[in-house]
Amino acid sequence: VRVELARAGELHLAMQPIGHYVGRGPDVERGRAFERILPAERVHVIREDGQIVGSAGAYPLALTVPGAAGVPTAGIVGVGVLPTHRRRGILRALMRAQLDAIHERGEPLAYLWASEDVIYGRYGYGIASFSGQIEIDRAHADFAPFERRGRLRLLEKDEALAAFPPLYERVAAGTPGMFARTAAWWEVRILADPEYRRRGGGEHARVLYEVDGKAEGYAVYRLHFNVDTGIPEGHVQVVEAVGATAGAVRELWRYLLDIDWMARLKAELLPLDHPLFFLLQEPRRLEFRVRDGTWLRLVDVGAALSSRGYATDGEIVLDVHDDFCPWNEGRWRLADGKAGRTDAQPDLNLSVTALGSAYLGGFTFAELARAGRVEEQRPGGLDRADALFRSDRLPWCPEIF
Ligand SMILES: CC(C)(COP(=O)(O)OP(=O)(O)OC[C@H]1O[C@@H](n2cnc3c(N)ncnc32)[C@H](O)[C@@H]1OP(=O)(O)O)[C@@H](O)C(=O)NCCC(=O)NCCS
Fewer CB in 10 Å around end: N or C, the chain? Predict the structure, then answer.
């Protein structure tokens, strides 16, 4: 199989392999909009008789990692192989070409949401965060008492395009797992509201939270209105709720859970350290369910380790195994926040996959060691590594890209 780059203007065709699975045919206009956030030269394709049968894209992202923002990262998107061509190595060829290209570009990380959890481990991606979803009955959604402040205001889309991004950026810059969004990203993804994304719900509603005239948070949601013999059966579907202060988070969720005429509230993509557990009188009623969230791959181990901040001054030597990207193989010494090659005795022996799980601070080396994913080679190695990599917040990515 020969892997090529997509041509400008053909994104609607390049995305067809994944489009097939979600039941949508090529759409020139959607392809053109998509190209504003995914340049054609970042999409690898495989053709047969002129038809694209497999493809894989990479958004250029600037990711927040513990102690640093703006780390160049490939956001993997639109990976698909037509069902007529599966299990012939097309995915493997795409992953090979894509990771080589990311490496050449100098992006130290690759980041994704996996459609199926079985797919990406073999290419060196490890689970980097958990993601939770809730479904709560409004009758059991009382908050522990708190004094209400500020005011809420519904916005038109144009107003939201101006008001929401600075709030998001404030939060994203300090939250591992979030990334900067361009204006095009807001227009094409977050505030776009095409019929096929509504799943029976209403149009987007956009609310801004302000204190003394200063914006502190926002939420995008839709109402799925439904009544049966006059009794409310509908639900609020939260698309995204972001508060730049603890007060804003509290007020926004209070608002979302207070909307009359709705029976329930549903939300997805929440971090496991979400304050709702401590805000509600009956947190059990959240019916919080957990799944794997984002997956991360260190494409260049040295550059990736040197890109994040560390919680202590210690040093550590990691013996890293990486079959798929052998340029990462070997011993890496991390000291003073910089990583370099070394011959020193390793503290830990681990695969690049396990390092991907620990990198954003979502999982500890001790936790991975208990699963046999990390081996301690020197006494205290796990403790030293966990002290270095510790992060105050769990990684959070509020959107599936
Ligand atoms: C997932 C998908 C891309 C796999 O493509 P493919 O060309 O069949 O994969 P390959 O032939 O290169 O297989 C590579 C390996 O992964 C395994 N594999 C890939 N996808 C798998 C799946 N969904 N379930 C189980 N095993 C899978 C293959 O068995 C093979 O294993 P091997 O190397 O031990 O032989 C394809 O099935 C697809 O497009 N699925 C729907 C869309 C999707 O899930 N995309 C991912 C978006 S995040």
Answer: N
Ligand 1 pocket mutation pick from 24, 81, 98 by most atoms within 8 angstroms of CB: 81
**Residue ID of nearest Cα to ligand 1 atom 3:** 80
Residues with CB under 6 A from ligand 1: 18, 21, 79-81, 86-92, 114-116, 118-119
pLDDT at 1: 86
pTM over 0.90: yes
| Distance of CA 82 from the midpoint of ligand 1 (Å) | 11
For 223, list phi and psi in degrees, rounded to 5.
-100, 130
> Strand order of the sheet with strand 51-65?
3-5, 43-48, 51-65, 68-81, 109-113, 294-298, 126-127
pLDDT tens digits for 222-251? Answer: 999 999 999 999 999 999 999 999 999 999
Could you tell me the distance, in angstroms and rounded to a whole number, from the CA of residue 89 to the centre of ligand 1? 8
Give percent above pLDDT 90 in the chain: 100
